[in-house]
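Replying to the earlier thread about multi-chain prediction with a worked example.

Input:
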Amino acid sequence: MRLRNIPGAEETIEASPFVVQDPASFRGRWKEAIFPGVKRFYLEIGCGKGIFLHTLSERDPETGFLGIEKMSSVLLRAVEKFGAEERANLRFLRMDAENITECFAPGEVDRIYLNFSDPWPKDRHHKRRLTSREFLARYAAVLSPGGTLEFKTDNEALFDFSLEELSAVHWTVTEMTRDLHRSPMNEGNVMTEYEDRFSTLGNRILKLIAKPAGA
Ligand code: SAM
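Result:
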């Protein structure tokens, strides 16, 4: 994914009805204020161009889906792609996921998807990985009782790191596979842009589902 600046990206995102502005003002009332009538509220963190959520939101109109993406140049693609179509249960947010506890109240989020998160391979960058214990603490703070984290990647090192971090903070891994596309967990699987790209290259896809300690 190219991370160059695109002139006008910020302005287009700010003007888009698909992008939520001032997210902290909806803390504790996302379902009623942004997705009235939905039964569940799911996030994808690092949603890229939003292709995964576009499919999910079409399949499941009773769930509100919010894609969080920190790069304006990337989110612009989601907004441009889907801007002409009204989809009441799909919205996006341009934000660094470091700040999620400022925008979501305890217990407000029913599921968090992490798909093909950046691996940050250097040890000194481990806190930036979206499955580090620092991020897991943020997720635990906003997930509802019974709420889950679903993580897919083709990166074995990141997957192993994630299992170690989950164990260190006493999360429970309820399901996992190191070859998703040949596993029963693949039933109903929605491919992401990166999943499509990496599986076409022959890479195996790894997936886990986990829930916070005590949930
Ligand atoms: N999930 C998509 C997929 O599977 O096709 C995109 C994967 S791409 C490798 C990872 C995305 O996560 C990038 O668009 C990146 O900008 C975004 N990202 C990385 N760290 C983030 C953070 N802390 N907060 C929000 N987005 C982040």
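The chain has a mean pLDDT of 94.

Feel free to reuse this layout for your own posts.
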